[in-house]
Amino acid sequence: MSQVPMYEPDIETMERPKLAALQFERLKKIVKYAYDNVPHYKAGFSKIGVRPEDLRTIDDYVRFPFTTKSDFRSNYPFDIYVQALCIRYDEITMR
Fold it and tell me: Does some domain include residue 42?
């Protein structure tokens, strides 16, 4: 039986609690990035009274707004994507 190649063996074989912690840290970075760089998300967070630092546990995530189809329709392309199109890949990698 041949072994399946892994892209990132350290992460792909990580114990579940450590993986959950890593995923949560990455989620916090993404939420902060969206708040700091995308006007649509900053306005949405402000409208319901949350800030990135309010995300202290995964249970806090339910307080944050989700992006809906109508959000994309009413903000496309510039109010949601313009910042993402203007950054280098190495600025968004989570390592």
Answer: yes
Domain residues for 40? 15-92
Q: How far apart, in Å, do the first and last CA atoms of the chain sit?
A: 32
Angle between helices 16-37 and 39-48 (to 10 degrees): 100
Asked if the structure places residue 1 within a domain, the reply is no
Q: Is 7 domain-assigned? A: no
What pLDDT digit, counting tens, does each position of 37-69 carry? 888 889 999 999 999 999 999 999 999 988 888
Any alpha helices (H) in the chain, and if so which ranges? 9-12, 16-37, 39-48, 69-75, 78-85, 89-92
Q: Which tokens in the block code for residue 79?
A: 């109010």
Domain count, the chain: 1
pLDDT band at 85 (very low <50, low <70, confident <90, very high): very low
